[in-house]
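Need residues for this backbone.
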């Protein structure tokens, strides 16, 4: 079985040797082995690649990719869109388990669909995680662009 989270060896067709590759190189090989039509594939920022987005849509799947600095223009454009945001589209307060109180908020938009230089964009969103440590009272706020 292939392990997409580890650097691995990918067989070279017709040869007895293996080709070393990383997560990006393993992505297609792993997904070629399973049925992904009408499935949603999520990936971290490393796999936020135009080629991978096109591959997924070509196989009639959907994707959610985290956007960070490896796609700088994409990250900047999405961040700018949400810079002066109104009330969130959804807010969820999780139970005060595990010593923290966490509130998650999400803002969604289709405004950049025709603007972004990224294949098959259907929607972008910003997720905010607002966490308060119950013991210390310390608060942290984290944002993720998708």
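Answer:
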């Amino acid at each position: 079985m292939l392990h997409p989270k580890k650097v691995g060896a990918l067989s070279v067709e017709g040869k007895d040797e293996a080709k070393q590759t990383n997560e990006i190189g393993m992505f297609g090989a792993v997904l070629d082995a399973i049925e992904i039509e009408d499935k949603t594939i999520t990936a971290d920022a490393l796999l936020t690649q135009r080629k991978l987005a096109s591959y997924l849509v070509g196989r009639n799947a959907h994707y959610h990719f985290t956007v960070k600095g490896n796609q700088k223009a994409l990250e900047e454009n999405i961040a700018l869109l949400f810079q002066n945001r109104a009330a969130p589209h959804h807010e969820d307060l999780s139970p005060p388990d595990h010593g923290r109180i966490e509130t998650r908020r999400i803002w969604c938009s289709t405004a950049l669909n025709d603007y972004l230089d990224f294949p098959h964009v259907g929607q972008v969103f910003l997720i905010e995680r607002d966490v308060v440590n119950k013991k210390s009272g310390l608060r942290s706020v984290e944002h993720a662009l998708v």
